Amino acid sequence: MRVFFIGDIVGKPGRKILTENLPSIRERLGVDFVIANGENSAGGNGITKNMAEELYRAGIDVITLGDHIWDQRCFEGEIASIDRLCRPANVPHSNPGRDFVVVEKNGMKLGVFSLLGQTLMKIKSDCPFAAASRMYDKVAPLCDAVFLDFHAETTSEKVSMAWHLDGRAQAVVGTHTHIPTNDARIFPKGLAFLSDAGMTGPWHSCLGRKWEPILQKFIDGRPRPFVMAEGDDRICACIVDIDSVSKRYSECGIRIGALISKNPEVRAAVMKLCQARLSPPLIGQIVAEASLDAPEDYYRDVYEEYVERRKCLIDGLNRIPGVYSPIPMGAFYTVAKLPVDDSEKFCRWCLEEFQYEGETVMMAPAAGFYTTPGAGINQVRIAYVLKKEDLERALIVLRKALEAYPGRVDSND
User: Fold this and answer.
1) Do the strands 108-116 and 145-151 form a parallel or antiparallel pair, or are they unpaired?
2) Helix (H, G, I), strand (E, B) or coil at 173
3) Global pTM value
4) Active site residue 164
5) Which member of 68, 151, 164, 176 is catalytic?
6) What is the DSSP pairing of strand 333-337 with strand 379-383?
7) CA atoms within 13 A on the CB side of 410
8) Band of the pLDDT at 59, cuts 50, 70, 90?
9) Element (H, E) at 348
10) β-sheet with 2-6: strand ranges across
């Protein structure tokens, strides 16, 4: 499950840049769910129903809110009629609106709620930590993963919330300060955390407002109107990949038993169920449950081995003339660009016609992973699940294969 979370949307510039770019971002990054904090969408103060609908048309699935929730007077009468929008769950219960949202795609359900911090915040709210436990117990039974937008001022309160929900929620991402932080991390029990996702809107500004009157107020202390800024519009966001237990512990291959049939319809039906992987066998469930109790040094050793294998493969690929691979940030595979006419032909050629010192390499053509026709035609997907010494040998064989392949296409790009 891939979640794209967008930091505070500020005014018309923030709405406009999302309308123009979010559909292509969703497709390019393979996003399942888009969440956005929309509390500053209306000229930097609050949101309206019309603006919420505009954001939904742009491709946002869930809108969360913060301390500016009631800045637009009309919104109090509108909020109850807006689907997929939730107010902070720790404002007084008499406030209208939903306190959480559950969205579903391809059989996966994501539960989303937001909370207000109490430190240096003026709006009335209950203890966010008690509310977080209450909301988790309420939302978790309804979904596969739980996501919290914590709208708070101080990083200490946000980090404390992450510790509070580690092992329960899947992600806590902060909003409110409009400044993106560089502290993304995974907590010991698997929670993804970022102190603040930043601001989506005009960056030629001071937090979305024209910087000149704000600077003057700091200098002389006199009050001035803070109007919306324009220029250098940007999207500030983060991606959270929420995996299954089987992938987290490299247990994707757990399979028990066999089915033998000459009936092609039976084989096709069973294969569809196997590929869905929706019902792991009992032994797989037992192993997955045991994995959750693995000691801390297991995580450390696995992480270090993962980084070492990734570095070996990516550095080795980029040393081969004509090959380029980005650095993957979470997967155990990469998609590399090769100097070939057709990656599917090249992969078949490697298996059927090529060998170097009695060995060859097997790769997956990447075109099948794209929905856009023609995309990935010269790309392959390569996993780094092998030991480092095996990866090093495979890189040598791949280099020799590219040197010998009759369909090689050299480029100056």
Assistant:
1) parallel
2) strand
3) 0.64
4) no
5) 68
6) antiparallel
7) 4
8) very high
9) helix 343-352
10) 85-86, 62-64, 33-37, 2-6, 237-241
